[in-house]
Amino acid sequence: MKITSPAKLRDTRNDLSGRQAEFSLTVTVCGGTGCRSSKSLAVFNAFNKELAKRGLSDSVRLIMSGCHGLCEKGPNVLIEPGSIYYCRVKPEWANEIVESTIQKGELIEKYMLIGLKTKESAGNQNGSQVHPYQVREILKNNGKIDPLDIGDYITHGGYESLSKALFELSPENVIEEIKKSRLRGRGGGGFPTGRKWESCRKIQADSKWVICNADEGDPGAFMDRSVLEGNPHVVIEGMIIGAYAVGAHGGRVYVRNEYPLAVHNLTVAIEQARKWGFIGENILGSGFNFDIRINRGGGAFVCGESTALMASLEGKPGEPRAKYIHTVEHGYRDEPTVLNNVETWANVPGIVLYGADKFRELGTEGSPGTKIFSLVGKINNSRLVEIPMGTTLRRLVEDIGGGVPNKKKVKAVQTGGPSGGCLPESLFDLQVDFDALTEAGSMMGSGGIIVMDEDTCMVDVAHYFIKFLVSESCGKCTPCREGLKEMDRILGKITKGEGESGDLNYLEELGEWMKAGSLCALGSSAPNPVLSTLNYFRDEYMMHIADNKCPAGVCKNLIEYHVIEKNCTGCTLCAKVCPTGAASGVTKQPHSIDTVLCIKCDECYKACKFEAIGK
Amino acid sequence: MPDRIEITINRTKVEAADREPLIDVLRREGIYVPTLCHHDRLEPYGVCRVCMVKVSWGKKSKYVTSCNYPVENGDVFDTESEDVLKVRNMSIEALLGRCPNEKSVVEFAHRHGISKSRFSAQKPGGDDCILCGLCVRVCDEIVGARALGFMSRGPDREVCTPFMENPESCIGCGVCSTLCPTTAMKMEGQKTAILKSRHGDVRPCRYALMGFYPGGVCANSYECRRCDIDQKFRELAAMEGCEHPIFLAREYAGSKKGGGTE
């Protein structure tokens, strides 16, 4: 059935809402990739069976939603109304939850969200306490709607923004509103979206394109995936509005093939949107035509770079080209193209519907709005968070993330993915936005935040990221290809204890050259992990070179395991776990480690409960 | 004239066409910047990075490659300061490190005052190829055979034929080895053998395959250097300022279709 006018859209929404109101309760099982891997499908099936058994299928609505954001506590089940949140739910619990909570309205405390180590979340839990300090604007419907049901999106106000844009605003008005909102590209560069659209609008051309960049390749980042999995229609709606604004009739979504669920949900969403008349010819009866196609990426990190992505879309090798001539003039198929990241597109419907002023109420002057981060690494609550721009790193790590596990001290965070920088604990009062992070020598990137504790060696971390980038560099231009290879070699030398005194200056020289001389943003940001750690953790590099020591005890060539006799109780655990017999001793007597036999596998260190192994 | 603009190069005001490639302006003004991957008859590629200069607008500045940077009114260029030379020379040093034993790379580096490189070579003994892509691009853009391409990525990138086999589409024109700035592209000897085996007794002339003589047949076993036709075309190409007759062939094909017979 096609919706052919704004009035029909409103009628449909009322009709659908009326039908949903017939349900007294909604049970939402998280179906994000994280929860699915901890068997949330089985939980969903168990609930389905249990509700049917008790004859509740008609009064209780059961849906499988996208990511709720509490990935580590999954599978998660949310019961509305009342915002009752059960974590790490097992299929066997369905019986009890349906009986107590759904039928009798009682809370089962033992299943509730516990262990989210923040003051606010202790005890009861409603939305604000499940997500303390967060402002969920883009993710607000993630976890509430069924991503495979366009009707659900419509009842939550979906496509209202599109209807407003098409019938109440001219393309110029839309661009004006986006410009006024000061929305900046969420893919990492932070280029003003409105300005990009305006330049594209001004160009006369028969054919223009809008592209959604969903090639999220950073290790530890899953923001775009979660949006596409949980609420694909918001991205589609943003793209249609963008296409209307710039005058494009074709859209492409370039999404990683490694995101099968996102590809599936998006495919279904596009089919449904086409069937309901939101994409295709004469959208909502406005006379505007636009269609979207999905292209799956082949797994190259460099294809997140806009020109490489477009080359890949054209069927050529995914290599970037110089951007002196902008892609808004000559982009995909040499035609004017607007390329934005998933999250940027997802911001558009809200801005158009509620206005730029409302959008700018959140965030900072230079970077308004909210930003989604994936908080991972050595942190208690690994999760997806959405916070207003300008939130401090300390709030993010300590209050939202719940700090570092095992009573360790936090050492640094790495923002912006592999080519971002490492910021030390002393900078945690930094307000996170595009400009502040760049100034501190890191970058916003797409929003991955990796927390590191005191057991992390910063030289090793820099080496890890450089190794990642060496294998992902396309090799087209000299600085990126030769510079990364050289950085890899020098860092390898340092972590092996073969560093020389001139190495640090050489690394800096290489870094500055790559920054200035590389062809694309991958190359020019690639030295960030090295330059930022050299800037903030130079002492640690010096200790590796001058003293042949790795203070964090990570670089194998520079450490030697030994028993700290005064702590050792002779519990024999180290001897039991040692695979080579290097750790040995008599029960209840201090043990010892034979350094000749020791293969430095770290097992004894991890096993010892008395901090009696030193390295 | 609306399309004439004014730019500044090393504190001197210069007139140029709007969006003209910077390298053309520099050559016209007699200002030297080195290039390795640039060729006037090919699309600019911008990968060797030895032609970098600094462009600034007020307080903002960035480094750009002159081979593909389109000049705009008010651009201020710096092609000779220490900062610029540092970036440029580092690229030369990197290429020298990559090809420490390649004669033309060593000479090129020497000419720019670089005799030693701190970079280590990827291949033992060093590489011959600087990955400028001239051979790949000329085969695609001028010959149209696309018998060459790149494979692998990052430090492992190298020039290769499709699937590392003798390419069916190669016409044996040899322009790839003519344009190669180093000694990396060696193909002619092997290629004639392939042409011989592929075409058997028919033996189409290399110039026929390039599009000069439809149906021309080779009279002397592909020993082109001993052939008058080859000599003639080489002279003709030199007169027109081309390194290789294939460039003429494409101009011929463009102006008078199929009319290149002598």
Comma- or semicolon-separated keywords:
heterodimer; A: 615 residues; alpha/beta; Glutaredoxin; Rossmann fold; Ubiquitin-like (UB roll); 5 domains; 5-stranded mixed sheet; 4-stranded mixed sheet; 25 helices; 17 strands; 13% strand; B: 262 residues; alpha+beta; 2 domains; two-stranded antiparallel ribbon; 7 strands; disordered C terminus
Q: Overall 3D geometry of chain B?
A: globular
Order of helices and strands of chain B: EEHEEEHHHEEHHHHH
Which band does the percent of strand residues of chain A land in?
Answer: 5-15%
Instruction: Give me the CATH fold name of the largest domain in chain B.
Output: Ubiquitin-like (UB roll)
For the record, give the distance between the C-alpha atoms at the N and C termini of chain A, rounded to a whole number.
69 Å
Mean pLDDT of chain A: 92
Number of domains of chain B: 2
Find the count of extended strands of chain B (DSSP E, 2+ residues): 7
CATH level 4 superfamily of the largest domain in chain A: NADH-ubiquinone oxidoreductase 51kDa subunit
| Class per helix and strand makeup of chain B | alpha+beta
What would the principal axes of the Cα set say about the shape of chain A?
globular
Task: Describe this protein's structure.
The complex is a heterodimer of chains A (615) and B (262). Chain A has 615 residues and is α/β, with parallel strands linked by helices. Chain A has five domains: 8-130, Glutaredoxin (3-Layer(aba) Sandwich), CATH 3.40.30.10; 150-360, Rossmann fold (3-Layer(aba) Sandwich); 370-453, Ubiquitin-like (UB roll); 458-546, NADH-ubiquinone oxidoreductase 51kDa subunit, iron-sulphur binding domain (de novo design (two linked rop proteins), Up-down Bundle); 560-614, Alpha-Beta Plaits, CATH 3.30.70.20. Chain A is 40% helix and 13% strand. Chain A is globular and about 80 Å long. Chain B has 262 residues and is of the alpha+beta class. Chain B contains nine helices and seven strands; from the N terminus they run E-E-H-E-E-E-H-H-H-E-E-H-H-H-H-H. In chain B, a hairpin with a 2-residue loop joins strand 3 (52-57) and strand 4 (60-65). In chain B, helix 2 (82-98) runs antiparallel to helix 3 (103-111) and helix 8 packs across helix 9. Chain A binds chain B through residues 300, 302, 317, 321-322, 324-325, 470-479, 481-486, 489, 506, 509-510, 513, 516-519, and chain B through 44, 46-50, 52, 62-65, 68-70, 86-87, 90-91, 94-95, 97-98, 118-120, 122, 131, 150, 152-157.
